[in-house]
Each structure stands twice: as C-alpha cells, then as structure tokens.
C-alpha cells in the first residue's frame, strides 16, 4: 500500500522553495549548497532530500512554478469582460503586484535559468513565451493597426523591460513600493512621460 504524505507536507515544501529561492537570489544558484538550504529551512539535509532530490530539482521547481503562476494570472485577467485598455492595464498592475510577492523566485527565473539543461530550459521558456504572447495579444487588441508593422511583441518586450528589472533598484523599505509604481508603469506605457501621475496624487485629491 502506498505511503501517504504527512500532514503539512505541502506547506513544508512551499517553505523550502521560498527559502531556497531567497538563497539563490542572494548568492546565486552555483554559490548555494544544499547544506545552506537545509540550514535556512531549519531541517537536516536528509530531511531536505525527502522533498527534493537535489539542488537542481529545487531550481527547476522554483523557475517553473513561478512562470506557471504567471500564466494563470494572465489567463484570469484575459477572461474578464473589461475592454482592451482595461485588460492591458490590469495585466500590468497584476504583474507588478506578483513580482512584489515573488521577487526571489523572479530573480531566479531571470538570472539562473541558464543553469537548466536544454529540455527544462526550453519548456520553461515556452511558458514565458506564452505569457509574452498574451501581452502581445492585449496590445494588438488595443491597437490593431500596429500589427501591420509587427510591433505588438516588441512593445510587449519593452513593457516587460520596465517590469522585469524593478527588483534590481526598487527597495522594499524605500520611499516607493511596487503598489505605488504599478500605476506609474501603466501610465508611462500608455501615454509616455506627460501621462505619469505622481504616486499618491489621487489619494490627496480625495482627502
């Protein structure tokens, strides 16, 4: 008879992934050992191997789980009945929010995917391409004319350029946070510098 999982197994597994992602993000995948992951999780190394067979399995799971979640987010937004602009704006806001909650996993995805083998890397990159494709479709729906110039995907990549690297300069304890910057990114993408509203300006008007 198959042995069932102990109560709390999934929570423990999620904790391991979170701690490992933090270590990989701070020290890099090559610079992190399974001993360090086990220590960060407050468990023995044999106990850690009960959840993940090796460090590589941690890397694959962190990267793939993160991009899989992003796929879910884009599909949720695109299934709404909002108009084209509202959907694209919601995509931007949701992605900035998601990155704020998963900064370490996002950093692993952007910086450590090169350590994956060809098969795993291509599978995960395919998922990323699908996410980019949804953004491209959203841009195309807003501006159908740009499709003739094949600009939808380049514009989506420019948008991701604003979002993807925010973790390199936006400090969690700084004057600005992801919640404040999310509408700034949307304003800048839709209207350029003249369209950017100051963070908190709308709240001040309502006060």
What does this structure look like?
- The protein is mainly α and 207 residues long.
- The protein has a single domain (59-206), classed as Orthogonal Bundle (Tetracycline Repressor, domain 2).
- Helix content is 68%, strand content 0%.
- It has ten helices and no strands.
- It has helices spanning 9-27, 34-41, 45-49, 55-78, 84-101, 103-111, 118-142, 152-164, 178-191, 201-206.
- The protein is elongated and about 55 Å long.
- The termini are far apart.
Provide the number of structural domains.
1
- What kind of assembly state do the chains in view correspond to? single chain
Give the N-terminus to C-terminus distance in angstroms: 64 Å
The proportion of strand residues reads under 5%
Tally the helices. Answer: 10
- The unreliable regions are 203-207
Structural class: mainly alpha
Tell me the number of strands.
0
Mean pLDDT: 89
Name of the top-level CATH class: Mainly Alpha
CATH architecture: Orthogonal Bundle
The CATH superfamily bears the name: Tetracycline Repressor, domain 2
Q: What is the element string, with H for helices and E for strands?
A: HHHHHHHHHH
- Overall morphology: elongated
Helix content: 55-70%
User: Sheet with the most strands?
Assistant: none
Radius of gyration: 20 Å
């Amino acid at each position: 008879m198959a042995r069932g999982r102990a109560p709390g197994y999934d929570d423990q597994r999620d904790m391991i992934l979170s701690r490992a992602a933090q270590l990989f993000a701070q020290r890099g995948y090559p610079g992190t050992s399974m001993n360090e992951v086990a220590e960060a999780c407050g468990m023995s190394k044999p106990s850690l191997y009960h959840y993940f067979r090796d460090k590589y399995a941690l890397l694959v799971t962190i990267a793939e789980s993160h991009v899989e979640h992003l796929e879910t987010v884009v599909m949720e937004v695109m299934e709404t009945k909002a108009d084209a602009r509202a959907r694209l704006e919601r995509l931007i806001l949701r992605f900035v929010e998601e990155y704020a909650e998963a900064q370490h996993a996002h950093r692993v995805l952007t910086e450590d995917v090169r350590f994956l083998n060809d098969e795993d890397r291509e599978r995960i990159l395919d998922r990323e391409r699908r996410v980019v494709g949804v953004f491209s479709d959203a841009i195309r729906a807003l501006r159908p004319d740009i499709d003739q110039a094949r600009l939808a995907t380049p514009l989506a990549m420019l948008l991701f350029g604003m979002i993807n690297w925010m973790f390199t300069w936006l400090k969690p304890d700084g004057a600005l946070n992801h919640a404040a910057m999310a509408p700034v990114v949307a304003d800048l993408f839709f209207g350029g510098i003249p369209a950017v509203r100051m963070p908190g300006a709308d709240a001040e008007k309502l006060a």
